[in-house]
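From the shared-data thread, chain only:
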Amino acid sequence: MATAVIELIKGAPLFEGLGEEALMSLTQGSFVQRYPSNVALFDEGETSPFVYVLLEGQIERFSTHRGRESGLGFIYPSAAFILSCAITQTPNTFSARTLSNSRFVLVPAQNVRTLFGANLQFARNVARDIADCEQEVMAELKNQKLRTMAERLANWILLNVPGDAQGQWTRLPMSKQALALYLGTTPENLWRSFVALEPHGVGVRRREVLVSDFGKLIEFAGPNPLIDRRPRQALAGPELAATD
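Structure, as tokens:
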């Protein structure tokens, strides 16, 4: 089983440059799991015995407080998550659920901690992953603090609608409710923001969005490379293996 798991995850950035022996020790006791959409994986405040490596699908990070819920971003294939909490043996800092049919590998957290202390290459990979997450959090904080809701939506569209799709309807990668939670608003206000973007070349219908004029949208959005990071699947390198 460990050999099969290695074939599935060895393309992920977290495991780059690791030899066969290191990968074997890391994946002992690992297993593959599949879940349909809208299934909770874990809750914030729990201490997870596993690190998750997403193979297929999409995961939503979120948090709740006093009956209020906020989206904290999305996880895409080849990303490992709940990594820093596994390393430090601290409670999960967010909850997670599937947004689509998803498949992932669960790696025992104890294996991760052991290899982190024994393998320099893996320690470097972990440091790089955590640094990337820190930059992502800072970018999102600036996005929330420095922009209006319509500007946040405009920049999200620029990141998620291909530049060669001008004049074409593009399906949103998640529901409007999930997008609203991520952008820090309600579904009703999200709809108003879509309407506010109509003069800037944006149309919306059901779960599809159309950009008729990228020039107008860019002028309104004011994209900033220190804020607007590509979705993590665009940074992850080669896709993971697609077979069990």
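The mean pLDDT is 91.
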